[in-house]
Amino acid sequence: MSARSREISQLALFGGPAQPGDWRVRPSRRARRLAVRVLPGGMVEVVVPRGTLARAVQQFVVRHRRWIEYKVEQYRPRDGDAADRLPDSFRFPASGHGFSVRYRPHPGRLRLVAGPGTIEVSGDTARGALVRRLLQRFTMRFARAALGRRLEELSAATGLGYRRVQIRRQRTRWGSCSRQGTICLNACLLFQPPQVMDYLLLHELAHTRHMNHSRRFWSLVARLAPNWRALDAALMSGWREVPAWMLR
Length: 248
Fold this sequence. Notes:
Layout: H1 3-9, E1 23-28, E2 35-39, E3 43-49, H2 54-63, H3 65-75, E4 89-92, E5 97-105, E6 111-115, E7 118-123, H4 128-158, E8 164-168, E9 175-177, E10 182-186, H5 194-207, H6 215-224, H7 228-236, H8 244-247
Parallel strand pairs: 1-3, 5-7, 8-10
Antiparallel strand pairs: 2-3, 4-5, 6-7, 9-10
Helix pairs in contact: 4-5, 5-6, 5-7
């Protein structure tokens, strides 16, 4: 990496809506112009062409500050917890399930055991990153069952078929549908209200009929979910309902 690239990578963007660690400046060989995006959780990433002066990056941030602040507020978790803080409890509003979390530290391998309404994590619980990964994996497994079951129900009710379902933990998408009929759903949908989750599932099922966002697509969505505009707006701000530990 050149000296100028190192200067950009280490740039401390002044002030702003996020905490210092939430900013990232990433030089890119493929970038032709400066760009900024805000990821769920409030991370601000500024992508710059290699060789860009630090002052140019600062000026770019100043010009887009209002948009950045709006997006950070939209994506920052409502719980306000730091991403490295482990939860004592959490809920999946989409399914109505809640869990209390108990930590039993002792030397040895980390294990997660889930029961009705409880989760026990035992082992070297001081390894926070690994504990978060266990909780994320539990959420993914739960989502595979709950979201998959609900998608099957809505598919049967609407007559809109699909080939298979995948569960992921995307950073920017709630879901997608391929031309082959594979529907990919974000496990973070579990943290949304049931009606918002249903809207996203219906949205993706509608894509099995129309692989675009044409007028015919939105007409179908409107038939499936008459109040889709309000639900779409709720989904856009739904990242705030996802706890910080799930976004890390």
